[in-house]
Specification:
Elements (H helix, E strand, L loop, with lengths): L14 E7 L4 E6 L1 E5 L4 E5 L1
Antiparallel strand pairs: 1-2, 3-4
Length: about 45
Protein backbone atom coordinates (compact mmCIF):
# COMPACT_ATOMS: atom_id res chain seq x y z
CA UNK A 1 0.00 0.00 0.00
CA UNK A 2 1.39 3.35 -1.01
CA UNK A 3 1.14 6.17 1.52
CA UNK A 4 0.73 9.66 0.16
CA UNK A 5 1.23 12.87 2.09
CA UNK A 6 -1.79 15.14 2.33
CA UNK A 7 0.00 18.49 2.24
CA UNK A 8 -3.21 20.42 2.89
CA UNK A 9 -3.79 18.68 6.23
CA UNK A 10 -0.45 18.31 7.98
CA UNK A 11 -0.82 18.14 11.79
CA UNK A 12 -0.14 21.40 13.65
CA UNK A 13 2.36 19.88 16.14
CA UNK A 14 4.80 19.49 13.23
CA UNK A 15 4.54 23.16 12.22
CA UNK A 16 7.89 24.84 12.96
CA UNK A 17 7.50 28.20 11.27
CA UNK A 18 4.73 30.26 9.72
CA UNK A 19 5.26 33.58 7.95
CA UNK A 20 3.29 35.84 5.65
CA UNK A 21 4.70 38.29 3.14
CA UNK A 22 1.80 40.70 2.82
CA UNK A 23 3.45 42.68 0.01
CA UNK A 24 3.62 39.61 -2.23
CA UNK A 25 0.60 37.86 -0.71
CA UNK A 26 2.62 34.69 0.06
CA UNK A 27 2.32 32.43 3.10
CA UNK A 28 5.19 30.09 3.97
CA UNK A 29 4.67 27.22 6.41
CA UNK A 30 7.57 24.95 7.38
CA UNK A 31 6.86 21.54 8.89
CA UNK A 32 9.33 18.99 10.23
CA UNK A 33 8.69 15.33 11.00
CA UNK A 34 10.44 11.98 11.00
CA UNK A 35 9.36 9.57 8.32
CA UNK A 36 10.59 6.12 7.36
CA UNK A 37 11.68 5.24 3.86
CA UNK A 38 10.16 1.90 2.87
CA UNK A 39 13.03 0.83 0.60
CA UNK A 40 15.99 2.06 2.64
CA UNK A 41 14.81 1.16 6.15
CA UNK A 42 15.94 4.55 7.37
CA UNK A 43 14.31 7.24 9.44
CA UNK A 44 14.45 10.52 7.56
CA UNK A 45 13.95 13.98 9.02
CA UNK A 46 11.72 15.70 6.47
CA UNK A 47 11.67 19.47 6.33
Amino acid sequence: MEMLIDYDNLPEPYLKSDSIDEDKNIQTRIYQMEMSHRKLSLILSML
